[in-house]
């Protein structure tokens, strides 16, 4: 017979496991992107955003897009978090999701924020979504294959623990590094004006296609069931940091244009 104590421990373990595997680009990753974006905003724009969000920072609201997934009334926004494309397609040539995707979601957010007739409530809502979605766009597995749900069904191990390829890039590598979002943002790579300009260039579709090129390399970086450890983190965490920085810089570019 299972004792009440054993049953409690089992339930606690299962609950903890579920919580641990429910994280997206990781809250730390999204918050890093939000903080980096703030570092690249014009002062006048930062003031407008601060007023719109009632003092909440971009880092604070960056996880909002995931938080609302628990409320069914926001189900229509679920497909905005990703775009699935075969390896031999670009966004322009791929089949589009009729329910929307990352590109249509970001474009809708920008449209609402630029509309002078939009209410403050709507602008705040879509700003929070925009911060999150631009982060998702730069996580390569959010631009993955439909057949494995962006790497969610590609089972691997992380230091001997069961996980999947999507989660490795969402949070496992970031969590293993052990830095807070403030530490990651404060240690963003120093860029020249030319490098900064190159990152800011292009459209949302260009950025999606760029992420998709990286996605192909991510899929090729593992074998199903492989136990990923220090070497994988060493080889790829630099790319994670670069993607977080690009996301922050490009988010700031969008916001500087919207609120200019």
Automatic annotation (TrEMBL):
<dbReference type="InterPro" id="IPR003154">
    <property type="entry name" value="S1/P1nuclease"/>
</dbReference>
<protein>
    <submittedName>
        <fullName>S1/P1 nuclease</fullName>
    </submittedName>
</protein>
<keyword id="KW-1015">Disulfide bond</keyword>
<keyword id="KW-0378">Hydrolase</keyword>
<keyword id="KW-0479">Metal-binding</keyword>
<dbReference type="Pfam" id="PF02265">
    <property type="entry name" value="S1-P1_nuclease"/>
</dbReference>
<dbReference type="GO" id="GO:0016788">
    <property type="term" value="F:hydrolase activity, acting on ester bonds"/>
</dbReference>
<dbReference type="GO" id="GO:0046872">
    <property type="term" value="F:metal ion binding"/>
</dbReference>
<keyword id="KW-0540">Nuclease</keyword>
<feature type="signal peptide">
    <location>
        <begin position="1"/>
        <end position="20"/>
    </location>
</feature>
<dbReference type="GO" id="GO:0004519">
    <property type="term" value="F:endonuclease activity"/>
</dbReference>
<dbReference type="GO" id="GO:0003676">
    <property type="term" value="F:nucleic acid binding"/>
</dbReference>
<dbReference type="InterPro" id="IPR008947">
    <property type="entry name" value="PLipase_C/P1_nuclease_dom_sf"/>
</dbReference>
<keyword id="KW-0255">Endonuclease</keyword>
<keyword id="KW-0325">Glycoprotein</keyword>
<dbReference type="GO" id="GO:0006308">
    <property type="term" value="P:DNA catabolic process"/>
</dbReference>
<keyword id="KW-0732">Signal</keyword>
């Amino acid at each position: 017979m299972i004792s009440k104590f054993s049953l409690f421990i089992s339930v606690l373990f299962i609950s903890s496991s579920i919580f641990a595997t429910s994280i997206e680009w990781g809250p730390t990753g999204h918050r890093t992107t939000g903080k980096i974006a703030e570092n690249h905003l014009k002062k006048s724009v930062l003031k407008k955003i601060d007023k719109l969000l009632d003092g909440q920072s971009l880092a604070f609201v960056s996880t909002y897009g995931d938080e609302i997934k628990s409320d069914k009334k926001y189900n229509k926004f679920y497909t905005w978090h990703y775009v699935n494309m075969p390896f031999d397609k670009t966004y322009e040539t791929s089949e589009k999701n009729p329910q929307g995707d990352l590109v249509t979601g970001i474009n809708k957010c920008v449209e609402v924020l630029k509309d002078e007739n939009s209410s403050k409530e709507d602008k705040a809502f879509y700003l929070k979504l925009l911060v999150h979605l631009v982060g998702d766009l730069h996580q390569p597995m959010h631009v993955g294959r439909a057949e494995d749900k962006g790497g969610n069904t590609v089972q691997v191990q992380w230091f001997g623990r069961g996980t999947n390829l999507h989660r490795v890039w969402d949070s496992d590598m970031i969590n293993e590094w052990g830095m807070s979002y403030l530490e990651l943002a404060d240690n963003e790579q120093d860029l020249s004006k030319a490098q900064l300009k190159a990152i800011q260039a292009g459209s949302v579709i260009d950025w999606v296609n760029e992420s998709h090129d990286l996605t192909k390399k991510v899929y090729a970086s593992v074998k199903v069931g492989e136990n990923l450890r220090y070497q994988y983190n060493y080889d790829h965490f630099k790319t994670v940091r670069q993607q977080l920085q690009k996301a922050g810089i490009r988010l700031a570019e969008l916001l500087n244009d919207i609120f200019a």
